[in-house]
Design brief:
Elements: E1 3-7, E2 11-12, E3 18-25, E4 35-41, E5 48-54, E6 59-61, E7 69-74, E8 79-84, E9 93-99, E10 102-103, E11 107-111
Parallel strand pairs: 2-11
Antiparallel strand pairs: 1-3, 3-8, 4-5, 4-9, 5-6, 7-8, 9-10, 9-11
């Protein structure tokens, strides 16, 4: 069974870059046909898909976040990461990493000065 664990700062200042890492166990991020996503849920709102990195390293992003979002991976550590630049308080959310049908527990990120 694949397990995912998010990690990163819980507080980010406006205009800075949010950086999170997802550590994967029980499966390889390079295993064929797996896709590794980031999803977030702002307070009082639904889940928002942010982007994905495939087993081959290819990436796709939500059009609404594409200009500020980057997903990368470190295959030696079996991790993939999220960066969101120029954050605002609207980026405050619980952030999850995901690969169907598994999801991490999530990590709260608050954008505030």
């Amino acid at each position: 069974q694949v397990q995912l664990q998010e990690s990163g700062p819980g507080l980010v200042k406006p205009s800075q870059t949010l950086s999170l890492t997802c550590t994967v166990s029980g499966g390889s991020i390079t295993a064929s046909y797996y896709a590794w996503s980031w999803i977030r849920q702002p307070p009082g709102k639904g889940l928002e898909w942010m982007g994905v990195i495939g087993y081959d390293g290819s990436t796709y992003y939500s059009p609404s976040l594409k200009s500020r979002t980057s997903i990368s991976r470190d295959t030696s550590k079996n991790q993939f990461s999220l960066q969101v630049s120029s954050v605002t308080p609207e980026d405050t959310a619980v952030y999850y990493c995901h690969t169907f049908p598994f999801r991490g527990l999530g990590t709260q990120v608050t954008v505030s000065s």
